Amino acid sequence: MMAGHGPPPQPTQLKVLRGNPGRRPLNKKEPRAMVGKAEAPAWLRDPHAPVDPVEIYDALAALLVPLRALTTADQQALADLADKIALHRRLRADIYAGWAYETTTKEGSIMQRVKPEVAPFLDLSRQIATGLATFGLTPSSRSKIQTVGPEVKTGVEEFLGNGT
To answer: Do the domain assignments include residue 7?
Structure first.
């Protein structure tokens, strides 16, 4: 199969949670990683970083662990996402101080130019959105996941009874 055609492959566990919408046979021999919190890798720690990527990593892990959506095999992907978010926040601080700067043209007139940080900022925005969706941390990606086990009713559903 050529790269770039069709959607990317989904992990079997994610297909199970989504109810196997494609109805294709599930991979029964897919490797399974241990569920739990993977510690932030040492390379992510940077005492000089204005935004600590380890704090972001820990905050994301705190969201994913109760959902049982984080395995020890996800350490690198989560670290990369935390690193991108930290860099994005640093660039955002630079950009929000002013999106543009003034420069003088060869003819002597003054013009506004967009800061060079804007392009990587926007690129990181797209990469972060993809990373959050990969971990089921966006409303649309979360809506495609079904929990397995007893159905849990909200307080409103319990109050209204069986008529909901």
So the answer is: no
- Go through the chain and tell me how many residues it has: 164
Residue 21 lies in a domain: yes
Range of the domain at 56: 12-141
Q: Is the pLDDT of residue 125 over 60?
A: yes
Q: Which region, left, alpha or beta, applies to residue 4 given φ > 0 means left and ψ of -120 to 50 means alpha?
A: left
Terminal-residue alpha carbon distance, the chain:
46
List C-alpha distances in Å: 33 to 62, 73, 142, 149.
Answer: 18, 6, 21, 20
Whole-angstrom Cα distance, residue 138 to residue 51? 22
Looking at the domain assignment, is residue 127 inside a domain? yes
B/e letters for 10-21, b = 16+ CB within 10 Å, e = fewer, are ebbbbbebeeee
pTM over 0.90: no
Question: How many structural domains is the chain composed of?
Answer: 1
